[in-house]
Amino acid sequence: MTSEIKVSLFPESQRPEAQAQTARAALRVEHLTKYFGEQRILDNISFSLAEGESLVLLGPSGSGKSTTLRILAGLETPDTGEIFLNGRHIAHLRARERNIGVIFQDYALFPRMTVIDNIAFGLKIRRVKKRQRLAKAEELLAMVGLSEHRDKYPGQLSGGQKQRIAIARAVAYQPDLLLFDESFSALDPQTRVALRREIRALLQRLRIPAIFITHDQEEAMELGDRIAILNAGKLEQIGTPYEVYNHPQTEFVATFLGAANVVPGRWCGRVIELGNDRTLPGPEAVAPVQTTDVKVVFRPEDIILAHPNVPSVLGAETPLSLGRGEVQEITFTGAAETLLVKLLPRATAGLTLAAQDGKVTQNFIVKVTRSKWDADKLRLRAGDQVFVGLRHYQILRG
User: Exposed site from 28, 123, 254, 284, fewest CB < 10 Å?
Assistant: First the structure.
């Protein structure tokens, strides 16, 4: 099992650590396993969801996200595992008995029903009196800002409006849990951004726990109080957006959630040895260990670049130095600039995979992201040499 050790220059008082979960658990999922034939789709998945909390399941295709959602909804049966919703064991219950609302990607609205009737439908099949269900539907229409569309049909609505109606219908009968099955993917980017902010605010107001499935990393960061990252049926990491981005526990999480540089090294006592005779200080809080292979992980924005003739500028920013590098490529993306920088040997610039005193030195290429303001302070072109430093890194080992 891979473990991680954090090395950071962020003062403890300034780091936005996760708030403790004080709300009671509304949902508990314990040791879910699911096979399709001989293929294991879910491998001993466990997590919990607090009252009013939003959890995003994030992962590549085939990671088990949709299977997890379908099991929670009662559309699939797990081979092993338990599910508790508000203390009630529901793994054996049919979908209609679970009191869970599902918002599908295609909205699943009834095309021959008006908006108001679509919202009231769930109450109708629960035999709520007509006056009460229409009053509730009107209330929800006002809540999602579509009262003027009450008598329209789904075919007369935009994608964003259909999504709001689907959500209003799902919350009409006061579900204990809401499941969103990639519900924003069919919308244009501008509508998607605006709608997910509205939905986030609505869920916080209603205090209904929710689980979202998405491939969109930005969407996951914005929607989730916590993010659960799945890979090949296993839960790699679960935590707040800040935790999983800044402190990934595995190489998969580091490279899947945003860009990350992963450099192999060796941990020797208090020092992390990298190629090209460069070292980084090991974590002071951890006792020295015997020499072991590790991976040093840092984000592109964790890197600082300084002019090669003014290395003192780099020292003022951070004592963590990677030495000299050469700019290989620069890409301008508007708000930021992305660079590929080759880390050069300290002794002999340009040396690649050459032996020095019995050791092999290597040229590593790292990805760097700079704001437009930093790019303007130090203008660079391909071929320029720079000093490279780090604000933060962590070690993965095991």
Answer: 284
24: tokens are 């009671």
Q: How far, CA to CA in Å, does 104 sit from each of 68, 75, 107, 153, 255?
A: 14, 13, 5, 18, 29
pLDDT in tens, the chain (398 residues): 444 444 443 334 334 333 434 457 899 999 999 999 989 999 999 999 998 899 999 999 889 999 999 999 999 999 999 999 999 999 989 988 899 988 887 778 888 989 898 888 888 888 888 888 888 888 888 888 888 888 889 889 888 888 888 888 888 888 999 999 887 766 767 777 777 788 888 888 888 899 999 888 888 998 899 999 999 999 999 999 999 999 999 999 999 988 899 988 888 777 888 866 677 877 665 555 567 888 889 999 999 998 887 766 566 567 788 888 999 999 988 888 999 999 887 654 333 333 333 343 456 899 999 998 889 888 999 999 998 988 888 888 75
Q: Is 198 helix (H, G, I), strand (E, B) or coil?
A: helix
Give the HSE-up count for residue 101: Cα atoms under 13 Å, Cβ half-sphere: 24
